[in-house]
Write a structure and sequence with these properties.
This protein is an alpha/beta fold and 204 residues long. 28% of the residues lie in helices and 24% in strands. The protein is built from seven helices and eight strands, in the order E-H-E-H-H-H-E-E-H-E-H-E-E-E-H. It has an eight-stranded mixed β-sheet with strand order 4-3-2-5-1-6-8-7, with helices on both faces. The longest helix has 10 residues. It is globular and about 65 Å long. The N and C termini lie far apart (52 Å).
Amino acid sequence: MRKIKAQLFMSLDGVVEAPDQWHFPYFDEEMGAAVDATLGRADTLLLGRRTYDSFAGGWPQREAAGGEDAPFARVLGDARKIVVSDSPLAFTWRNCEQLRGDLAAGVAALKEEPGTGAPVWISGSVSVVRQLLAAGLLDELNLLLHPIAVRGGLRLFEPDAAPVPLELLSAETFRTGVLNLFYAVAAAPGEGTYEDAKTHLPRH
């Protein structure tokens, strides 16, 4: 079974919208290596419509230009790209296909596809990540947590929704202060009260 994993740039106050407006000062060799270890190794990408439009509007041209980012652009171009949208799409980038209809059913089928067993990576695509978290279909969540409070914009975890318990799989601190965090969805932690917690307080 293939795993579904998502990577998002996130600010300290939980914003994931428009990272191009605030995360580049933190993008160094360590973050580049982290992104290469995930999206740079992916053979399949699952993208929301807006993320696809952003990628397709830049990466093909960067590959053609042959600059320093051309090898990474080529990897993205060669990957199978599954775009989630119910609207008609006219693809201008190679290796693209459309996922229409029930997202949970489509992703459940994707997880069962035979092949290499390599994970399917999601980049950004907040609506897709939210739906897969709610459906229990997201296996890992990679958050690159930036030490900046953006103070406005879309957050990954919307207010008034059900809690999402997570298990920390690994954590790495970059020189810039960015935290590279990997989580898996966890079982609910159960109930607890202050009466339970106070037994763990230090005694002076």
